[in-house]
Amino acid sequence: MFSAPSIRLVIIGHVGFAEDHTVSGSSTGLGGSAYACAMGASVIKPRGVGVVARVGDDFPASSVEVLGVNTEGLSYAAGRAPRLKIIQYAESRSFSSELGVANDVVTGSFPDSYARASHIHLATMPLVQQMRWLRYCRQNAPAATMSADMFEATAESDPELSRSLCSLVDIAFLNECELKILYPDDVDRPPRYVGKRGAGGASYFADRQELSVSAPSVDVVDTTGAGELLAGVFLSMLTAGHDAHHALDVAVLVASTKVQEFGLDGAKLRQVLASVQIQATRQAGHEGLT
Asked: N or C: which end of the chain has fewer CB within 10 A?
């Protein structure tokens, strides 16, 4: 009898629907920070990835299960799943949301098995929710390292609390806009963070060293979800034993593929995720034979 694999990475966030409006058009589909991040994390050993989210009865549960990740942390409630609306302008974007059943944090949905994970990631969500989950996880999963993803709207509305969260986690994920808002003088930045530079790629800053990866030149259609995908790929590969540079390189490739299409179900994105999964499986098999 085979035992279930242990959970190495936990993703906490929202699962719902995303409505995107860009200069290239509009789309509506499955989304939410936890969903996008889990999709990225599925590139390697997905059964070792656990997802924590409050799910409405209007969301197709099979959409998360098909990623191959552990769904023990999904709690279902009668009501509407989160609705996210993003309008992307030439140089900025606006954001609004109706969180529905996910409006309140329900820490009781965090499975005991997840408390033994090596890393816990707080995907994009309201700051008060991230802080509550941070306190809960530090108390109930003290051995886990933690990370959190920032968002421009919350950085602007509460920069002090945003900086506090960045200082309390082990890795912060920030884009260029968030870095300018929270650290305008380039000082007192978190000791470890991933800087998401869009078309410029991404950098990982740790132990006073910088690892940088350039992004391929692509035609950008829709950037929503790219940052969460990047975080999911990076953390999944890192916790599976890959070195940070390789993990960041693959994460940038996946994110760069996603921005070429609307939503999270584009053919190009699915193809690159499948390709990474195949390569990782082959590599694992090769290492097992050597």
From this structure: N
